[in-house]
Design goal:
Blueprint: E1 3-8, H1 16-31, E2 35-40, H2 46-57, H3 63-87, E3 92-95, E4 102-104, E5 113-116, H4 119-126, E6 130-134, E7 137-139, E8 145-147, H5 153-164, E9 168-173, E10 194-196, H6 197-205, H7 213-222, E11 226-230, E12 238-241, E13 254-270, H8 275-285, E14 290-298, E15 302-310, H9 314-323, H10 325-328, E16 332-345, H11 355-365, E17 372-376, E18 379-385, H12 389-399
Parallel strand pairs: 1-2, 1-9, 2-6, 3-6, 9-11, 10-12
Antiparallel strand pairs: 4-5, 7-8, 11-12, 13-15, 13-16, 14-15, 16-18, 17-18
The structure holds adenosine-5'-diphosphate, aspartic acid and magnesium ion.
Residues 9-10, 41-42, 47, 73, 135-136, 150-153 line the site of aspartic acid (ASP).
Length: 414
């Protein structure tokens, strides 16, 4: 009997009826003679509510206590689902992250899973039970409870699938698979039958929130096959796997869009050896992740550097630049928040020339200003004004022939 891990996201367990619906889907899988391990998210917007609740008490929540409160969200879902399964005559048992043997680093708020001791899960499966695990949490070496960062239940699902050597990991969500772009932006987006780990990793990192990038990364390392599908229909979903079965005929598989980006400019630094290294060293020491970088000489005397960072790095970037202004000797800094990153992704790019040129032409023809560009083998990203972002997604999506007739089914919050 093969093991299947099914992860259900917040919308899928958003109210009692939806939890009962999940229980029915789990029951169906059990009846197909599978051993089922379920990973659940908190109900609907529960995690956001818990964050707000904490901020009603203090503007400076202790990180440990924030993790303690956040993990309760998933625990509500797991026990309700277990009870719903009992109602349907399916024996089950719910586990918190630590009960399930999920061990993490000692970092509150964004811990990585370091190991999973699956004995207890295996024992319960052997007893014929469905195992239900609270997503997005684990236990540290010193017996503290830590969360994996927002969206972390996907990572729990894939990590558990790897530890149990499951046949595959389902990511059950509120859309029917991975689409060529967010179907909430382009309703005629194309559902992809299959996508490679590498393409999905790029799409997820560049803003496609349908699955967390760390989950894809783990799946790639451990060779876990993922099926993204809807909790609300029986339509075929999207397989994320190592290789695509078909030869790549299309150059662009998807368009990703991310508004959580800031553009930073550091102007007129002295053009002497080591300046650039020092600048990025100061930022790295505060764990600021740099995305795109554009560098130019300003005559022979000075240099200008522009770079982009995720919004969560914004304050640390400002603080570091202010702190080291006198050593770096730059004249000025500018921060632009009203920007967005738009990206095209596709393994087919490597063998189809002119893909990037087409993107620049399409944006240029509509006077959408490109402020920065970065490329890899399978993606091209541009920073553009945020106010033109949605329009740009739609333009590129049709220009690369990704539109379909059918309208995607998307489920709202209850
Ligand atoms: P869950 O609560 O199940 O984890 P998320 O909200 O995290 O669900 O992710 C699902 C959402 O991802 C969809 O509702 C959709 O709006 C968004 N999304 C963004 N890009 C894509 C894409 N390329 N394909 C499918 N969904 C996408
Ligand atoms: N409940 C957590 C969040 O909202 C984890 C998750 O759903 O993946 O971020
Ligand atoms: Mg999610």
């Amino acid at each position: 009997m093969g093991i299947v891990v099914q992860k259900y996201g917040g919308t899928s367990v958003g109210n009692v009826d939806r939890i009962k619906n999940v229980a029915k889907r789990v029951k169906k899988t059990v009846e197909e003679k599978k051993e089922v391990v379920v990973v659940v998210s908190a109900m609907g917007d529960k995690t956001d509510e818990l964050v707000s609740l904490m901020y009603e008490v203090t503007d400076h929540p202790p990180k440990r206590e924030m993790d303690m409160i956040l993990t309760t969200g998933e625990q509500v879902s797991m026990s309700l689902l277990s009870a719903a399964l009992f109602e349907l005559g399916i024996p089950s048992i719910s586990f918190t992250g630590w009960q399930a043997g999920i061990e993490t680093e000692s970092v509150f708020g964004n811990a990585r899973i370091v190991d999973i001791k699956p004995d207890r899960m295996f024992d319960s499966l052997k007893e014929g039970k469905v195992v239900i695990i609270a997503g997005f949490q684990g236990v540290t070496d010193d017996k503290e409870i830590a969360t994996l960062g927002r969206g972390g239940s996907d990572t729990t699902g894939v990590a558990v699938a790897a530890a149990l050597q499951a046949d595959y990991c389902e990511i059950n969500t509120d859309v029917e698979g991975v689409y060529s772009t967010d179907p909430r932006i382009v309703p005629n987006a194309r559902k992809l039958p299959c996508i490679t780990h590498n393409e999905m990793l790029e799409m997820a990192t560049l803003g496609a929130s349908v699955i967390h990038p760390r989950a894809v990364e783990l799946a790639k390392i451990h060779g876990v096959k993922i099926l993204v599908r809807s909790s609300f229909s029986d339509k075929e979903g999207t397989f994320i796997k190592e290789e695509n079965d078909m030869e790549q005929t299309i150059a662009v598989t998807g368009v990703a869009y991310d508004t959580d980006v800031i553009k930073v400019e550091v102007l007129k630094m002295p053009n002497i050896m080591g300046t650039i290294a020092n600048l990025f060293d100061y930022l790295a020491s505060e764990k600021v992740n740099i995305d795109m970088i554009v560098f130019s000489e300003h005559g022979h005397e000075t240099i200008n550097v522009a770079f982009s960072v995720g919004i969560e790095n914004g304050q640390r970037t400002v603080d570091q630049l202010n702190k080291h202004k006198s050593e770096l000797k730059f004249e000025d800094t500018f921060y632009e928040k009203d920007v967005a990153k738009i990206s095209i992704i596709g393994s087919g790019m490597t063998t189809n020339p002119g893909v990037a040129a087409k993107m620049f032409k399409i944006l240029g023809d509509q006077d959408i200003r490109i402020k920065m560009i970065t490329t890899s083998e399978i993606k091209v990203s541009c920073i553009i004004p945020e106010e033109r972002g949605i329009e740009a997604v739609k333009l590129l999506h049709s220009a690369y022939d990704l539109d379909v007739e059918e309208t995607a089914n998307v489920e709202g919050t209850p």
